Amino acid sequence: MKAHRVNQISAGLTGLAALLIVAGLVVVVIDAVLGGWGALSWRFFTEEPGDDVSEGGVFPAIYGTVVLTLLMTVAVMPLGVATAIYLHEYAPPHSRLARWARAAINNLAGVPSIVFGLFGLGFFVQLLGKAVDHVRGGGLHYAQPGLLWAALTLALLTLPIVIVTTEEALRAVPVETRMASLALGATRAQTLGRVVLPGALPGIMTGAILALSRGAGEVAPVLLTGAAYSLPTLPNALSSQFMHLGYHAYVLSTQAPDVEAARPMMYATVLVLLMLTFALNLVAIVVRSRARRGST
Amino acid sequence: MAASRSTRIDRWVEWLVTAAGMTGLVALGLILVFIVREALPLLFDGDVTLGKLVLPQPWREGRAPTWLWQPLSRVPKVSVVPLIVGSVKVSAVAMALAAPMGIAAALFSSEFASPRARELLKPTIELLAGVPSVVLGFFALTVIATALQTLFDWPYRLNAAVAGVAMALAIVPIIFTITEDALRTVPNTYREASQALGATRWDTAWRIVLPAASPGVLAGLLLGFGRAIGETMIVLMASGNASVVSLQLRDPTRTLSATIAAEMGEVVSASTHTSLLYFLGVLLFVLNVGLNASVGAWARNRVLRARGAHA
Known about the structure:
The structure holds 2 protein chains of 2 kinds.
Chain A: H1 2-36, H2 42-46, H3 59-90, H4 96-110, H5 113-136, H6 147-172, H7 175-183, H8 188-217, H9 220-223, H10 245-255, H11 259-294
Helix pairs in contact in A: 1-11, 3-6, 3-8, 4-6, 5-6, 6-8, 7-8, 8-11, 10-11
Chain B: H1 2-21, H2 23-39, H3 50-54, E1 69-70, E2 77-78, H4 81-112, H5 115-129, H6 133-152, H7 160-185, H8 188-196, H9 201-212, H10 214-230, H11 233-238, H12 256-264, H13 272-294, H14 297-308
Antiparallel strand pairs in B: 1-2
């Protein structure tokens, strides 16, 4: 039948488009694996880069990335969750303030990552950093790029992610549960702390993991606020500069003097970054689907 | 006594939460105010006039006026036109590739695919959304550049087309997710009515469902475009970094975002150059706010939901 044919062809063509997109992902992954798998070794994960660009490992970059994203998470979670709670639980339904707050978050989500980097450099490093140094006394510490400012910049960037996933999680807690709690005499705060938040916890964790994953992969914001290519020591203070997986990959692939020698290193660094973000994303997906199934 | 204590806590919590709720507003406002403030000195700078920013200038004796961006030369050339052209070129290539693919794949997922296929497709594309842009830039630099070089034998290895293809990979998840969400929101009654009248699934999808979902689809396209314009790492690594005006896809190019990233590190503080870079930041910021504003309110909420999870 002709209709059947048309359906088959259209399903086939659109399915082909879907397949091509998936193929794009697969090719990126396979390319990274093929190029970098050979260079992965225990040494690669635990050593610092050698004098020759083709030797050594990326441990300082891994360390720097981990510390940075942990700091970022500490900064973003309280603010993000609280904002989501405001928007979902406390904001009056037709309040103009709430609408503006929501619009602001919407816009914040669209700001290019380099603009965050620009803001981080100008506001955090140069303005706040100078103020902090002035108050602290004792020389130049915070008025230069470092962990704290980079973490705060990334926290701003990932704020919408946390807010949106937390709101989704809050929405998943049934209204009846809330009402039951209030009917038993609990205050709003008590209901929030003992009923709603525990129920929304898996979703909130998903938000944290997604934010982690995004934060670990973004390079543009840390380009100007603290990432460095080659440092003699690991960062040991909030004002230290740090090495960063993404930044390392960027510098290696655009500024390495001997491209062929740097090749295995480049690929391996990219592969580690990819594996890290994928692992985080997969964990988030698993947590989210288990939360959805468990909440029935 | 217990009752009034918990009431006090309750009020405290409400106050705290409301204050926290303003974070988004405060952050956005702070960013805008700050980058505008840093760009303001340009208004008083003699080297930079609106004409110099936008109109072609005669830079060399006897040669035709051109647009150039070279703020670091002895005679600073500050036209933003090459950068805007660069941004638009790369984003156009990306959209030309990503829009059909994303919409087609979304149609597949929403109208033709089995539930099982859909369950597999969505997370996979979400995974693609999670690939850091530096990895995509790296991929462009190595694989895409080589592929296009062998196919077309262009004089320059890194150019707008290479960056555009990688950029398409970056924005297709956004277009797919938002379009798919919009398609799924179309009530089933539309589909049932159409099929009851004898239409094929394709007819239903293309002529009924897709048009019904068009605000959402448009939103997805606008936001994909916005993301492409603002994307930094891919262009920084793969577009060739030549800030000249050229409509050819095979020529290297420079975008607004890459310029900020590349030049901010080497800038003399508080100079005209710094203010110029902040000005570029303001341009990007305003462009994105504009795009956001033109997305209708309904679409905006769905978009935020779809995008917040893996923007």
